[in-house]
């Protein structure tokens, strides 16, 4: 990216010689897929350039039309595309960008540097059957792969090819006198090929691996790991509790347990904590997935089956635990629902009773008809009033209180309870109710507990919740 930036600034300076380099730098735009490695974003931060992260297709592959549309939009806004990073074998799910589509599009824009990152999958390109993944590589300006990921080389070891090495070295040349020497023109000085001034002799360990295994030995090694991945994929597909989340083309299998992301996160956490396996998660199509990749040099089919047995064992335990927790939650929910219904029913009964006592709108004359008294009082006239007839016994005592809409529900309840005669006074209203004595034999067993007519004038309890204080005698 530093080399691409230097080339873009150089070209723009020729077209706009009087524009500050800082202004030109603010116009540069780089592009990559959402599945690209995080090092691309970090490079943009180091280079102080804008980076547009593009959405891949459903197979996590960056397509040519997507890139072209983004570059045309930015160019219309005055921005300048200068760098495109593609990936062959992404880190999350080993997907491949459509390099054959992207390459020609980059050629449509002047001086756009096309970089191909094949850190993991590039090692497999030593196999003839894997060469088709390189379609479109002829458009690339740079290409890198990491032998320390799949070619039995210890970390760190990265190989990179560039189409024009002068474009790379000219961007990083700083040549003070104390670093100059007499062999500058006859040897390659790698301090001009990267950020550090010096570098370790890392090519030696790669040379030893190639000499020890040979090309056929390394090819057999990679093929064997691809076969192990395919075997693991077959085991996952046989279990209907799991899903395979990527196209298994090389040695990486992305899978997940059917359910929520938290469930899969818990599964991976339990497995890694056990020490029996170690796997790394990834976000594929905005879903939490688990990555399985055979990495041991001498891994076998038995090792893969053991790994799958560990995974299924922890999955079974986690699902059973989840079912128990769900049953407990359902039981708690049923209990809460029943309790809520009970409270609502009680509240409704209380509310209805209060409204029945104090709200004339729900007054029922048919119930009041059974009460003693030749007349009743109500604040609302209803159609039912015409149907009410006077009681058969019209001989009503002069001192008998008249039933009212405030008092009749309580009186009716007391009458149903079997009270012979009971004076009822409301604390907050000056209203007195006296029920007449029932006929003999009509009272229930509870009548023995009701006040006697002889005691109707007796003093009421001072703090009774039903009977209030007696009305003071009138001076008349």
UniProtKB/TrEMBL annotation:
Keyword Chloroplast appears in the UniProt entry: no
Q: Which residues form the signal peptide?
A: none
Record-level GO BP terms: amino acid metabolic process; carboxylic acid metabolic process
**What name appears for this protein in its UniProt entry?**
Tyrosine decarboxylase
TM segment ranges: none
- Name the Gene3D superfamilies on file: Aspartate Aminotransferase, domain 1, Type I PLP-dependent aspartate aminotransferase-like (Major domain)
Q: Which InterPro entries match?
A: Aromatic_deC, PyrdxlP-dep_de-COase, PyrdxlP-dep_Trfase, PyrdxlP-dep_Trfase_major, PyrdxlP-dep_Trfase_small, Pyridoxal-P_BS
What does the sequence similarity comment in the record state about its family?
Belongs to the group II decarboxylase family.
For this UniProt record, the keywords arranged alphabetically read as follows:
Decarboxylase, Lyase, Pyridoxal phosphate
Any Gene Ontology CC annotation: cytoplasm
Q: Which portions of the chain have biased composition (kind: Low complexity)?
A: 444-465
Q: Is the keyword Cytoplasm in the record?
A: no
Spell out the molecular function terms from Gene Ontology: carboxy-lyase activity; pyridoxal phosphate binding
Region annotated Disordered, chain positions: 368-391, 436-476
């Amino acid at each position: 990216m530093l080399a691409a930036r230097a080339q873009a600034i150089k070209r723009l300076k020729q077209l706009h010689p009087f524009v500050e380099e800082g202004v030109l730098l603010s116009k540069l735009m780089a592009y990559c897929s959402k599945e690209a490695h995080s090092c691309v974003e970090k490079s943009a931060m180091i280079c102080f350039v804008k980076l547009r992260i593009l959405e891949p297709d459903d197979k996590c592959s960056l397509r040519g039309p997507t890139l072209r549309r983004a570059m045309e939009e930015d160019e219309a806004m005055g921005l300048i595309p200068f760098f495109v990073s593609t990936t062959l074998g992404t880190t999350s799910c080993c997907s491949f960008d459509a390099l054959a589509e992207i390459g020609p599009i980059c050629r449509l824009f002047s001086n756009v540097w096309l970089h191909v990152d094949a850190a993991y999958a590039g090692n497999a390109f030593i196999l003839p059957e894997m060469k088709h993944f390189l379609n479109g590589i002829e458009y690339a300006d740079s290409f890198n792969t990491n032998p320390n990921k799949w070619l039995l080389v210890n970390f760190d070891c990265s190989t990179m090819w560039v189409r024009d090495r002068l474009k790379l070295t000219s961007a990083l040349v700083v040549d003070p006198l104390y670093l100059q020497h007499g062999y500058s023109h006859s040897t390659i000085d790698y301090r001009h090929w990267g950020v550090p001034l010096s570098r370790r002799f890392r090519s030696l360990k790669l040379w030893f691996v190639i000499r020890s295994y040979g090309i056929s030995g390394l090819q057999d090694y990679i093929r064997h790991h691809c076969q192990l991945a395919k075997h693991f994929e077959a085991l996952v597909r046989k279990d209907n509790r799991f899903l395979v989340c990527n196209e298994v083309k090389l040695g990486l299998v992305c899978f997940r347990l059917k359910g929520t992301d938290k469930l899969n996160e818990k599964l991976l956490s339990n497995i890694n904590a056990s020490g029996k396996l170690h796997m790394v998660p990834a976000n594929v199509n905005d879903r939490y997935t688990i990555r399985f990749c055979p990495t041991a040099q001498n891994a076998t089919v038995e090792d893969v089956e053991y790994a799958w047995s560990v995974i299924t064992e922890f999955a079974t335990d986690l699902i059973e635990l989840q079912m128990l927790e769900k049953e407990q939650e359902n039981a708690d929910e049923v209990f809460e629902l029943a309790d809520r219904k009970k409270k609502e029913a009680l509240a409704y009964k209380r509310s209805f009773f209060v409204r029945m006592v104090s709200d004339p709108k729900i007054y029922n004359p048919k119930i009041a008809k059974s009460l003693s008294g030749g007349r009743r009082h109500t604040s609302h006239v209803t159609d039912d009033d015409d149907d009410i007839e006077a009681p058969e016994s019209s001989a009503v005592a002069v001192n008998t209180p008249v039933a009212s809409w405030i008092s009749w529900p309580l009186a009716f309840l007391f009458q149903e309870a079997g009270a012979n005669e009971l004076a009822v006074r409301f604390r907050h209203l000056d209203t007195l109710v006296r029920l007449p004595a029932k006929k003999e034999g009509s009272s229930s067993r509870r009548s023995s507990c009701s006040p006697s007519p002889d005691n109707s004038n007796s003093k009421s309890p001072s703090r009774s919740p039903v009977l209030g204080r007696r009305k003071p005698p009138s001076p008349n």
